Amino acid sequence: MNKKIFYGPQTKASLENFPFDYHRTLREFIYAMVMIKKAAATANYKAGKLDKNQSEKIVTACDEILKGKYDDQFVVSAHHGGAGTSPHMNVNEVIGNLSGTHPNDHVNASQSTNDVNPSALKIASIKLTEKLLDSLLYLIKVMDEKSKEYRDVRKLGRTHIQDAVPTTLGAELASYRDILIRDHKRIGDSLEYFYELNLGGTAVGNSINAPEVYIKNVYLELQKVTGIKNLKPLENLMSGTSSDTDFCFLSSAVNILCLDISKIALDLRFMNSGPRGGIGEISFKELQPGSSIMPGKVNPIVAETMNQTYYLVSGKNLSIHQAAEGAQLELGVMLPIIADSLITILKTVETALRLFADRGIKNIVVNRERCLEHLEKSTAYSTLLTPILGYDTVSKVVKESVATGRTMRKIILEKELLSEAELEKLLVL
After folding, report:
1. Which fold has domain 379-426?
2. Residues with catalytic roles
């Protein structure tokens, strides 16, 4: 930790005004702003707004910050008013004091909070979403492997949580895999709008104090600094200053992914119920004691975490949408809560996806005997048998099975309606 303080009076004012010191502005957002400052320093030199020495000192200071050496200097709360001026000036002041330049005149030359912050959030979101998508692909791979492993496990399919028709556990897992594949595409598509920034628009999007040569070069430099090759200015810079709905698009796509995963987790918890007093078709390997009072209890803790991840994401997604609606005229003034909520969503979900794959899906243990028992005790075969034996005959078999408790299989074989081989061939799913 640095004993010396490198931030200045505007940061100190923010600390007094917004004393939410338990939750500071997230590092990913800070670093994205620093990347913009580094690119802007070079672009401003080329535009004649900074001399070579000023530009180089700012670039050096940014590089040191991006190495993590001054993380303790970024102290403002994530929860504040002012459209993001507080963390932005925190960044400007630290860079200015480290470089011996003026935070406004030099570090912030050709810029405004209103174009830097939305652009920084898009850069941070791209990087975090790419990691999230990689983790989602990993979960899809694990789900695919499990679907193939259990493709021959016959079980009872259920609708309305009632006995329905036969299926396999492999088929259920394959359906989850394909749902996640659609989620992957949906999230990837939502990034289309994140490569278009309003950087260069300054205060309201009309580029006051930002020379044309600066705007041209800042994007070229930003591509180098971030490693994101297709960054470009919005055709209408004011549209990116006044509207934050691009962030709503991404958060909604991730929210849908979490909704799907939560549903999958609920399905697995349902099949896991018991193990003796419930369905008990699957179980999860024990990861920790399930109770402080009941010895030997094993709870589906990872699946429960997935449900809670969705609840968290859903709440923050709503916050993002409400904050975007709260923009007035030429400025999306509620960007601070959008930035904090979106970055939290992306980081949390990326971790949750890996957790679900490695400690959830991989840890499924299948009770094949229990799956078959439920299937055999049910009347699920009736739908498959109707085209072969006819509706009336199958209805009689079903009624007898329900009345006597004997399985449909036993009744069919006893009545010689089908042979064992014929029945087995019919039941291959």
Report:
1. Ribonucleotide Reductase Protein R1; domain 1 (1.10.40)
2. 291
